[in-house]
Design goal:
By secondary structure, this protein is of the alpha+beta class. The protein contains six helices and 23 strands.
């Protein structure tokens, strides 16, 4: 079976304004770091590479946080006497977190205790009279019923006093604190939100039905957080919802994130899930956009990988990598030769050079940035050559 081969050869158009610079570079080559530092950052779109043996990918955005987020409230209403923790505090199981003013509650317990003691004495007296045939059986039964009712009232008051304090049901982090001392709260009003650590922390995303059907438990995932653009986290799908959210129509999916225990809850992250639904005809590789491939020749091509700059902390640079191309299906290509957590340049790849500073932008703002790139003086174009 004959397969068409696509070769991409770069063509560089140079403006007249840059001829003196090129001449100077020819006489005394400047270090690559100096050129990259002087040049403005190139706006690009990126895509995470995930392992998956010819896997198709699902992309989504979600929020990072504890798998169990527990709202804590008092069982009864009253005046809040103490709140002992603030937002962000780490707590242990059984630790006292807040309590109500117990004066009224203790009075209710005392009243119930007095009623129980009286009912107990009355039942004992009627029982003695019944033994002497002075009291009737009905009177004894009424006294016994009154005793049981008084006992139930005492138990209720005691339980209410027990739940007039809030203790941590498990270890975790206080995500929110809703009240302060002196607040008057009604029964069941949330006092604080606890992020439990017993079942770990996850990235929660919502997937449409067509994507949720392709995702399975254990699928590998790569996560990037907007607040940490230079770091890449790996994880796996831990939960796939079986029913759609009636408000959004999406299915809940939870992804464990390795090495993210120290991150705060609420971070927005994007995830790429390598599903095990193959689209590569059984060929091995990672699925990436064909827009990322440059200088393709036979079964190999060049891609640019975004990395953190070692010389300028906080900057991102692009470095070329030669990869093996195992096949192309539509606008996706199966490649080998990159680490699972690599981020490659897709849109804007023709404008990137080795060691160039790059700036990751969203798809909406990338079109305008690419137009600016194409008129900035140097434009690289890919030329497809069919043998």
């Amino acid at each position: 079976m004959t397969t068409n081969r696509i070769v991409f050869r770069p063509t560089v158009l140079v403006s007249a304004a840059m001829l003196p610079l090129l001449s100077a570079c020819g006489n005394a080559p400047a270090p690559e770091r100096d050129v990259a530092t002087l040049a403005p950052a190139v706006s690009v779109g990126v895509e995470a590479v995930t392992s998956g043996g010819g896997a198709d990918s699902v992309h989504a955005t979600g929020t990072f946080g504890s798998r169990d987020e527990i709202p804590l409230a008092f069982k009864i209403g009253g005046i809040v006497s103490r709140v002992l923790v603030d937002e962000g505090a780490t707590v242990q199981r059984g630790q006292l977190l807040a309590s109500l003013d117990l004066r009224e509650i203790n009075a209710a317990v005392g009243k119930a205790q007095v009623g129980f003691d009286k009912a107990q004495r009355d039942q004992a007296r009627v029982q003695r009279l019944a033994a002497d045939s002075v009291a009737t059986l009905a009177q004894l039964q009424d006294a016994t019923s009154a005793l049981e009712a008084a006992r139930s009232d005492l138990v209720t008051a005691t339980v209410n006093r027990e739940y007039a304090t809030i203790v941590a049901p498990e270890g975790g982090i206080v995500l929110q604190r809703m009240v302060t001392a002196g607040s008057n709260v009604s029964p069941g009003t949330p006092i604080m939100l606890l992020g439990g650590t017993r079942r770990g922390r996850v990235l929660r995303v919502g997937l449409p039905d067509r994507d949720a059907l392709r995702v399975q438990l254990g699928d590998a995932a790569t996560v990037h957080f907007d607040a940490l653009p230079a770091r890449t986290f790996t994880g796996r799908v831990q939960l796939v919802g079986r029913s759609a959210d009636p408000r959004t129509g999406t299915y809940a999916v939870e992804i464990t994130v390795n090495g993210a225990d120290a991150l705060p809850s609420g971070l927005v992250g994007s995830v790429t899930i390598a599903t095990r639904h193959s689209t590569g005809g059984g060929k091995r590789g990672a699925s990436v956009s064909v827009d990322a491939l440059l200088e393709a020749d036979r079964d190999s091509a060049t891609v640019y990988v975004v990395e953190a700059s070692r010389e300028a902390p906080g900057d991102l640079i692009a470095q070329p990598r030669r990869v093996r191309v195992n096949g192309v299906s539509g606008d996706r290509a199966l490649i080998e030769g990159l680490t699972p957590d690599a981020r490659i340049v897709t849109r804007g790849a023709p404008y990137v050079t080795a060691g160039a500073r790059v700036r990751i932008v969203t798809a909406d703002s990338l079109t305008a940035a690419l137009n600016a790139n194409s008129t900035s003086g140097t434009v690289a174009k890919r030329t497809a050559v069919l043998p």
